[in-house]
Amino acid sequence: MLLTLQAGFKYIENKSFENSFQGLFSEINLDSEKLGKRYTDRNAKLCVIITKISEGIADFSSNSDLLGDAYEYLIGQFAAGSGKKAGEFYTPQQISTILSEIVTLDSQDPAAGKKDKLNKVLDFACGSGSLLLNVRNQLGSHGIGKIYGQEKNITTYNLARMNMLLHGVKDSEFEIHHGDSLLNDWEILNEMNPAKKLKVDAVVANPPFSYRWEPTETLGEDFRFKSYGLAPKSAADFAFLLHGFHFLGDEGTMAIILPHGVLFRGGAEARIRTKLLKDNHIDTVIGLPANLFFSTGIPVCILVLKKCKKFDDVLFINASDSEHFEKGKRQNRLRDGKNGEPDDIGKIINAYQFREGEPRYARRVSMEEIEKNDYNLNISRYVSTAKPEEKIILGDVNEELIALEDKIIAATKEHNGFLKELNLPLLPSSEK
User: Fold this and answer.
1) Phi, psi of 254, rounded to the nearest 5 degrees
2) 99 and 204 in contact (C-beta within 8 Å)?
3) Which helix (H) or strand (E) holds 318?
4) 118 with 104: CB under 8 angstroms?
5) Which of 94, 99, 171, 218 fits as disulfide partner to 20, beta carbons 3.0 to 4.6 Å?
6) 144-151 and 174-178: which strand pairing?
7) Contact between 49 and 5 (Cβ < 8 Å)
8) CATH topology classification for 81-382
9) If DSSP codes are grouped into helix, strand and coil, which group holds residue 283?
10) 80-83 long-range contacts, Cβ below 8 Å, gap at least 24?
């Protein structure tokens, strides 16, 4: 069995799908002593594992969607159990759904509904590929022309390719590259010919938060950063954003998850943020509750960007208040409206789609107001979740106090009657 599995892995890597899955099983070590010290021990353990798996799935359909969903479920369960280690490869489905629905809506007029098709979609920090597949699910199996993904971690890169395969995505319908997005080592993204340059209809991403990187003079002249400047060494958040934004088409939408610091930090980040605002590229800022992610407990935001915007204001959505999520022991959760519970996810998407204001939740803010705030995008400056103080009518309060005073006088009088019969000292009374 051991030799057969090794031969099967090599065949898939070298013979199937025109070598699209070269090295797919490179991280699997069937000779590991964790399976047994001797060959016969390892072989016996693998036989038991495969037999049990075979027995377990015998009654289930071999439909690729079902297999893909099962794989996705296992990735999610592993991410939940891995805690902070999971942040680099998995975006929780609730967050993934928000990003996916946003980028599949019409970019100029979201209220018009979903696009019929996206020709190209990019996730430059794709992890296990779950976010890209969620975008595909929004439009159906034929709704995306081609999926582009990039991942730095070799194990996670292989997870993404396996995820595509198990969801029935043809090898001609996606390209996943193993490499560093910040260094832009993917040849397809370095095409300088405008006619051949990659322009995508949607960019989705959940890059590492406040990632330390090495901005150099050479990167300062890079076509992705030259017009905006380099993100600071201590936080590559805007470097990731500018990387993906560069490849966004004029009619496309970008939705990226970032830490709240990008909204208000100064220095180089303030300069980048200001230019993006002055160029009218930032469309929507969405504040999410804390503790939604496996990798961090901090609250995060979603920035929605567009090359060509219909609206000249910025929509702020503050979904961080306790009434807009379910608090959990280990993690908080955005609810989806099932089984009679509130639809926190739908509320965010509706606010973005129809761009209507709502007290303590959503507001369209003019560029003049943002300029007066020195281009600081701290959400609470524009949409406060504080509840207004209840109005107090002094006349009503006075009547209540008079009624209470009357009750006190009557009760004291009755009590003193009992005390008098018992020859005990009387209570002082305010009766006139």
Assistant:
1) -115, 135
2) yes
3) strand 313-318
4) yes
5) 171
6) parallel
7) no
8) Rossmann fold (3.40.50)
9) strand
10) 80/294, 82/294, 83/294, 83/295
Name the amino acid, one letter, at 77: Q
CB 98 within 8 A of CB 349: yes
Look up residue 122 and give its two tokens: 């990019």
Tell how strand 282-287 and strand 248-259 pair up.
unpaired
Distance CA 221, CA 379 (A): 32
- Our separate counts of H helices and E strands in the chain read 13, 9
Query: In the block, which residue shows the tokens 């954003």?
Result: 241
Listed in sequence order, the residues at least 6 apart from 66 whose beta carbon sits closer than 8 Å to its beta carbon are 60
- Are 134 and 154 a contacting pair, CB within 8 Å? no
Q: Which of 54, 77, 68, 66 is nearest to 129 (CA)?
A: 68
Query: pLDDT (tens digit, 9 = 90+) per residue, 206-225?
Result: 999 999 999 999 999 999 99
Query: Minimal CA–CA distance to 234: which of 256, 220, 217, 215?
Result: 215
Exposure string over 243-269, b if 16+ CB within 10 A, otherwise e = bbbbbbbeebbbbbbbbbbbbbbeebb
Instruction: Detail the DSSP E strand segments found in 57-173.
Output: 118-123, 144-151
- Is 254 in contact with 304 (CB distance < 8 Å)? yes
Distance CA 387, CA 393 (A): 18
Whole-angstrom CA distances from 68 to 7, 13, 95, 134, 425 are 24, 19, 19, 12, 84
| CA atoms lying within 13 Å on the CB side of residue 263 | 24
pLDDT tens by residue, 265-296: 999 999 999 999 999 999 999 999 998 887 67
Would you list the domain boundaries of the chain?
2-59, 81-382, 393-432
Whole-structure pTM value: 0.81
- The percent of the chain in helix, strand and coil, each rounded to the nearest 5, is 45, 15, 40
